[in-house]
Design a protein that fits this description.
With about 475 residues, the chain is α/β, with parallel strands linked by helices. About 45% of the residues lie in helices and about 15% in strands. The strands form three sheets. The protein has a six-stranded parallel beta sheet with strand order 5-2-1-6-7-8. It has a four-stranded mixed beta sheet with strand order 4-3-11-10. Strands 9-12-13 form a three-stranded mixed beta sheet, with helices on both faces. The radius of gyration is 25 Å and the shape is globular.
Length: about 475
């Protein structure tokens, strides 16, 4: 069989997007969106991939002329969904180290307008060892600062040659942190004040939030897929149908006009404030995981897919998500319930296997970030505690009491449970909730919380986890916000 690039013709387009990173997520999300926008006539741009690290190579990309297949499979609107798209929007791939001059030349390209990056969560860091003389600097912010300085110099500081920068690294305020690092480099390198002003004012550093599960190259299925498609492809990127891209900037309408991805059939949201969307994702997606998987594991379930097929845990998750997590999300109720529904479909995706024990890693810090804020806000707003989420905290305590599985968390957490293994449920609950270093505050000061969690823990120990979950789910469901009314 011939490779994928021999089966399709690429349309020449100007390189308006420089992409730092060649990983699966960028290819199955950002490049997929750009490809769809090009096809619909909404956009006219090629993407130039830049390999930002020294390890690895671009051989597969160059062998296939940067053409590859995105395969999306799962459930969408309660129906099985599958999409296969051959991506043709990538112009080429350049090694920032092995092909530095070719990489640097893009700084002088007049039509360049966008920078996209995914250099992992550790990529947006300031490295004081970077220098302007390095070709290139080691860190991504160092590379970007030098690239922008060369662009500033090439176009004599022309304001309209600034770029729109869209980092998709999974850290809060990614755009702001990237700009902060670039300004530090500009200061340390003694670059002209005119450049610092241009860097800060002519360029738009957007904060972003992205959401799509991308599993990458489907090694176990690749041969069968290639036989079905009639071509070979060493760069297949598989993922789920769901996607969300929230782009935050001071003038969202202006950025949307230049980057109209919201019209390409993908939920792309331009906003002045992405915090509500981040909270929705953290609480309704990540929080749904954290509040349910430990109890499910202790009931003999091993994957998220198995959990969703179990009526007991499906009911538990529905109660936690719809009646307790969703009402505290600072978005209209319709949007929260829609997102909760999409989470259920994503958890049911038969093509993605999520092991519960893997999700259980560092559950104490995850609970603090993803679930505890809902417990505290519910008490603050309504003067009562969300019972199902309090039960999930008791399930966490029971999980950390140990069993025939390996506990993986910070040393302080593991030592606490080891040292307090002989305590009664009520004493263990009290001692754990006292740990402000675990939770950010002394949770025994929240009226009724210690008692509620302790009673649930005693129920789990007395009846077993599954029976205790059944009893908890059978309690009345309290709708603090009526569905679809706000």
């Amino acid at each position: 069989m011939k490779p994928v690039n021999y089966t399709i013709t690429k349309t020449p387009r100007p390189v308006r997007i420089l992409q730092y990173g060649e990983g699966n997520f960028l290819r199955a999300f950002v490049d997929y969106v750009v490809d769809k926008a090009n096809e619909k006539g909404l956009f006219n741009s090629s993407v130039q991939i830049i390999k930002p690290i020294q390890s690895g190579d671009l051989d597969a990309f160059k062998a296939q002329d940067c053409v590859y297949t995105v395969l999306l499979r799962g459930i969408d609107n309660a129906e099985p969904a599958q999409e296969k798209r051959v991506i043709t929007c990538i112009n080429g791939a350049t090694d920032a180290y092995g092909e530095y001059e070719a990489y640097a030349a893009f700084a002088k390209t007049p039509e360049l307008r966008f920078i996209v990056s995914n250099t992992t969560e550790a990529g947006i860091v300031y490295d004081e060892n970077d220098t302007l003389e390095m070709s290139p600097p080691s860190s991504f912010p160092g590379k970007l600062t030098k690239f922008l300085y060369e662009r500033f110099t090439a176009f004599n500081g022309a304001f309209d040659k600034g770029l729109i920068i869209l980092p998709v690294e999974l850290i809060d305020k990614n755009g702001e942190k990237l700009l902060e690092c670039c300004l530090k480099h500009a200061e340390r390198w003694n670059l002209p004040s005119a450049f610092k002003k241009w860097l800060n004012e002519a360029n738009i550093f957007c904060n972003t939030l992205v959401d799509r599960i991308v599993t990458g190259y489907p090694a176990d299925e690749a041969a069968a897929l290639e036989a079905e498609w009639g071509y070979t492809d060493k760069l297949i990127a598989a993922g789920e149908p769901f996607a969300l891209w929230v782009i935050e900037c001071e003038y969202p309408e202006a950025v949307a006009a230049e980057f109209p991805m919201d019209k390409a059939g993908i939920p792309v949201i331009f906003t002045k404030d992405l915090k509500p969307y981040r909270e929705r994702k953290v609480r309704l997606l990540n929080g749904a995981h954290t509040s349910s998987v430990l109890a499910a594991y202790l009931s003999g379930i091993r994957t998220v897919g198995e959990m969703m097929k179990d009526l007991t845990f499906r009911g538990f998750l529905a109660k936690a998500s719809l009646t307790e997590l969703a009402p505290t999300v600072p978005l209209p109720a319709k949007e929260s319930w829609w997102f909760s529904g999409s989470v259920f479909e994503r958890f049911e995706n038969p093509y993605i296997r999520h092991n519960l024990l893997s999700i259980a890693l560092n559950s104490v810090s995850k609970f603090r970030a993803r679930v505890l804020p809902t417990i505290l806000e519910t008490y603050e707003q309504y003067g009562e505690l969300p019972q199902t989420l309090c039960f999930s905290l008791a399930a966490l305590l029971r999980f950390y009491m140990g069993g025939d599985y390996e506990l993986r968390d910070d040393e302080a957490v593991l030592n606490f449970f080891k040292e307090n293994a002989g305590l009664t449920p009520s004493d263990l609950t009290r001692e754990c909730l006292l740990r402000a270093d675990f939770w950010g505050e002394d949770l025994t000061q929240i009226p009724g919380l210690m008692e509620t969690v302790s009673v649930s823990l005693e129920s789990i120990i007395q009846h077993g986890m599954r029976k205790a979950v059944e009893m908890e789910t059978a309690k009345p469901w309290i709708w603090r916000v009526k569905p679809w009314t706000s």
